[in-house]
């Protein structure tokens, strides 16, 4: 059964095109059922994220035009609006594509782990809608195992490659027993929200969210079990924080040397990590001159991020090697499906021969024939009928000079190669 993976992603299409073919959560069920109603489609799963929309299908036969037409029609588009942005992968290439996507090798951020969870959700939804069967069930389970192997056997996800991730990784290097420490994040934009998420996922004990708009700070604090304060309340809470990560749009510094110096005294000189990822800076440069304060700026993090990217690129090469092997394994399983119907038909034919010879033997025994003689005739008749068709084909192959079939027969029947 052919496999196809097709769609668009951040490499092939701008966001205004990607959003036109995105599938909302409430429309996925309808889309899956509509897709498998297409004549050529037996199985289907749909992956839709901000960076990609991809459809994985098990088909009766390849029909690229029908699939692209379906995608356009479902979203009320003309084919010409999207066809130049799409890609189509078949069989081995489709399997390799899915394995690479799940392993983070095709992501906007190399090695990012979120895509695997999104693919698991994709499979779960398709499975719930009964639009997957043996082929896609096996493919997605194989994909999950390979992605896990890539994460386990390579360093693809261990190095920081985003500002938020780098800031939290730096904090983990400085502070052990992360669950016993407190962080203050200043700001409420996307970067700070991502910082808070990384802190929480890494087991940080406590988060304080400070922002000019307290309602926005409350929204982030509630999501990550922290508490919110206004910017003017920072000096009163600064001493509580072991880690301060700031990213606001303020044109002037929010934290000065005096406020931090007071906090250090109140902390009895316990060290503080301060990461300023804002441009313009939120923390006065003179703060870095204080003892027991470790101040990093966004430029410092860039070096960490570049090291992380280099590390991930090396890991990606190892991951590609793993994927090459695992694609081969899956395609071997897929090819083995072609033999199932042949084996079943051959078995049914052999069982019919067996039944016929057995009925003859039983009839002879009922008529009083000698049992030993009947058994000999049964064995002889069964053997002759089982080898008749292969023998005829081998003779014909020899007559035609078909060495390939003769060699295949030796392999199939496990015959010794004759001595020359």
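^ structure tokens above, recovered residues below v
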């Amino acid at each position: 059964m052919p496999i196809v993976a097709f769609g668009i992603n951040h490499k092939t299409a701008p966001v205004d095109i990607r959003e036109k073919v995105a599938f909302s959560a409430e429309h996925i069920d309808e889309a899956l059922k509509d897709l498998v109603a297409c004549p050529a489609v037996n199985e289907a799963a749909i992956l839709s994220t901000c960076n990609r929309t991809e459809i994985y299908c098990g088909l009766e036969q390849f029909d690229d035009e029908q699939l692209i037409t379906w995608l356009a029609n479902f979203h009320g588009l003309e084919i010409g609006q999207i066809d130049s942005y799409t890609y189509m992968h078949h069989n081995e290439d489709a399997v390799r594509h899915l394995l690479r996507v799940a392993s983070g090798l095709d992501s906007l951020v190399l090695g990012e782990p979120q895509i695997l969870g999104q693919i698991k959700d994709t499979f779960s939804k398709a499975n719930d809608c009964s639009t997957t069967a043996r082929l896609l069930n096996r493919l997605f389970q194989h994909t999950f195992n390979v992605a896990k192997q890539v994460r386990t056997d390579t360093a693809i996800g261990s190095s920081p490659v985003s500002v938020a991730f780098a800031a939290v990784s730096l904090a983990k290097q400085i502070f052990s027993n992360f669950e016993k420490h407190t962080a203050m994040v200043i700001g409420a934009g996307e970067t700070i929200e991502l910082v808070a998420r990384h802190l929480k996922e890494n087991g940080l004990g406590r988060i304080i969210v400070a922002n000019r708009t307290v309602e926005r700070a409350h929204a982030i604090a509630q999501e990550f079990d922290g508490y919110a304060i206004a910017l003017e309340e920072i000096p009163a809470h600064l001493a509580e924080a072991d880690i301060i990560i700031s990213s606001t749009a303020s044109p002037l510094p929010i934290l000065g040397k005096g406020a931090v110096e007071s906090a250090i005294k109140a902390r009895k000189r316990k060290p503080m990590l301060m990461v300023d990822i804002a441009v313009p800076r939120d923390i006065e440069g003179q703060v870095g001159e204080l003892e027991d304060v470790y101040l990093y700026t966004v430029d410092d993090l860039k070096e960490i991020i570049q090291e992380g990217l280099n590390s991930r690129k090396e890991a990606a090469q190892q991951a590609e090697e793993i994927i090459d092997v695992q694609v081969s394994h899956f395609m071997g399983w897929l090819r083995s499906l072609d033999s199932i119907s042949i084996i079943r038909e051959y078995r049914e034919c052999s069982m019919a021969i067996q039944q016929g010879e057995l009925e003859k033997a039983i009839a002879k025994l009922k008529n009083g024939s000698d049992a030993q003689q009947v058994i000999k005739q049964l064995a002889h008749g069964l053997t002759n009928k089982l080898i008749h068709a292969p023998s005829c084909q081998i003779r014909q192959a020899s007559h035609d000079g078909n060495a390939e079939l003769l060699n295949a027969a030796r392999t199939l029947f496990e015959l010794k190669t004759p001595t020359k």
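The chain has three domains: 3-153, 163-306, 343-412.
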